[in-house]
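The protein record passed on below.

***
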Amino acid sequence: MKLIIIDDEPLARSIIKEYLLYHPELELIAECNDGFEGVKAIHQLQPDLIFLDVQMPKINGFEMLELIEEPPAVIFTTAYDEYAIRAFESHAVDYLLKPFNRDRFEKAISKWFQTGKKNPVQQQLGPLLETVSNSPAEQYRVVVKLSGKIRIIPVEQIHFLEAFASLRQVQTNLFFCDR
């Protein structure tokens, strides 16, 4: 299994490399100092997994992922906890908050192995859809993000739903009775 570390901090990269010594089945094929190097390495080397920092010079980790059509599995490694939700929305395997210890690193690697070492979105979508379709209570509600907060709205409260998409934006209007 091939992996790349993308982090602007040499110390952070060295800690990951030290922990990888316990995993001879994993081959470190590149280290990158910023997102542009990361994009180039991913396109050229096609890794199975990347360890990705969020805050880096030039472009951040999320912007880097947007430049890749089919990103590999991602374990975020960052000192900022406020990006965790966005990381999981980007389908991250895990989110390691710096400084992390070997035990926490091992949990992230185990999680990746359990997903079949491929993009977790592809692996989890089928079971997720099956679970939703088998749960009647879930069929009569809509989950939306309003003003930065997640809301669960019962279908009977929805009066109108409209969606608009263009090449530049997606806009959805939802009118419901908030009780």
